[in-house]
Amino acid sequence: MSSEFKDIYNLWSRIHDENTAIIRHKKSFEEEKTVVPTISELRKMNTQAKLDLHNLTLEEALSRANFFIEDCWSNGLRKIKIVTGKGLHSPNGEPVIRPEIINIVSRHSKVREYNIKPKASEGGSGVIVIILREN
Predict the structure, then answer these.
(1) Could you give the 3-state DSSP secondary structure of residue 130?
(2) Residues with Cβ within 8 Å of residue 72, at least 6 apart in sequence
(3) Cβ atoms 88, 81 nearer than 8 A
(4) In which element (H, E) is residue 49 found?
(5) Which of 31, 36, 119, 123 could form a disulfide with 127 if both were Cys (CB 3.0 to 4.6 A apart)?
(6) pLDDT tens profile 93-105
(7) Domains parsed from the chain with CATH numbers
(8) Residue 133 half-sphere exposure, CB side, CA atoms within 13 Å?
(9) CA 53, CA 63: separation in Å to the nearest integer?
């Protein structure tokens, strides 16, 4: 090998680190794979977790709902539902838990949007479907 070729190759090797190029390429590929779903896509997707509040006291329901929302958000879930029921078995047939849960959900910092009248296929009027913010 001529000394001129060695010099050129050594210079090229210092400038073009193959391992660094491979790592850079892999990182750019991984960054492309993290696609954030649009709000429209989130609305269409199935719920990823469910909390049923039937047969709980108001205090138990409020505590569990808060924990559930925080836990789902912490675990990267985006669409969840809380089953409150319609309040048909409450005293005087008036809902007790549902209005309070709606109040919590409407003010919760991790909630992007919610639907208190989802389609029957999502649970109907006894369910609150929630889309959480991205974390």
Answers:
(1) strand
(2) 48, 49, 80, 132
(3) no
(4) strand 49-52
(5) 123
(6) 889 999 999 999 9
(7) 3-33 (no CATH), 39-132 (3.30.1370.110)
(8) 9
(9) 11
- Residue linked to tokens 């990267």: 76
- Kindly report the number of other CB atoms within 10 A of residue 95's CB atom: 17
According to DSSP, the residues that pair with 37 across neighbouring strands are none
| pLDDT-derived band at 5, boundaries 50, 70, 90 | confident
- C-alpha 41/C-alpha 56 separation (Å) is 33
pTM given for the model: 0.74
Token digits of residue 100 = 């309070």
pLDDT tens digits, residue range 23-53? 776 776 666 566 789 999 999 999 999 999 9
Which residue matches tokens 């090998």? Answer: 1
